[in-house]
Design brief:
By secondary structure, the chain is an alpha+beta fold. It is built from 6 helices and 7 strands, in the order E-H-H-H-H-E-E-E-H-E-H-E-E. Helix 5 links the parallel strand 4 and strand 5.
Length: about 220
Amino acid sequence: MNDDKTAAPGPVPDGPIPPDRLTIVPANEASWDDLRAIFGTTDYPGKCQCQRYKVRDSHWASFSDAERADRLREQTGCGDPGARSTSGLVAFLDGEPVGWCAVEPRTAYPRLPRTRTPWTGRGEDKTDDTVWAVTCFVTRRGFRKRGVTYGLARAAIGFARDRGARAVEGYAMLTEPGKEITWGELHVGSRDVFADAGFAEVSRPSPRRAVMRVDF
């Protein structure tokens, strides 16, 4: 991936942001200030700090917001381009950090084995670390509903493949015109986002969820 955070020249007006206008890098190539700008401190991302699937249910309440942020900082290895691993991707628009995507081996998420959605109706090995998962998208305030997640979903495919994954999947929400879904619920990404990136639906574990997957 290109580590130059300068996107193509020319202003992007308010409205959809084409994926090719984004520069997307592994999170360890971004700074902690970049991540803090994306997550903020007040709404759902600022509270969760992408720890929903990284912490078991029984431990969730024991972490403060600051402790969750510390965990995110450690997991991403942000500010260390030489880090051996990282937990996601960061998107930039004209040098400004605008989005985050969590993508790691499924085994990196302690909560996933206890979550029904990834496994219902499938004979998956929960200990297979060659299958990766996209579990979270965060878009910075001021850039939401402009398509940032579309570019991140596309980038997640190459990111996982280049690091040895044999497949990557996501646990998407199904959206319907006229039906409101809260932003907190939609952090897993919509089916349309994954389908646009080239993921195929492999199961429908509930009326509101679809498992989307790319096999390499």
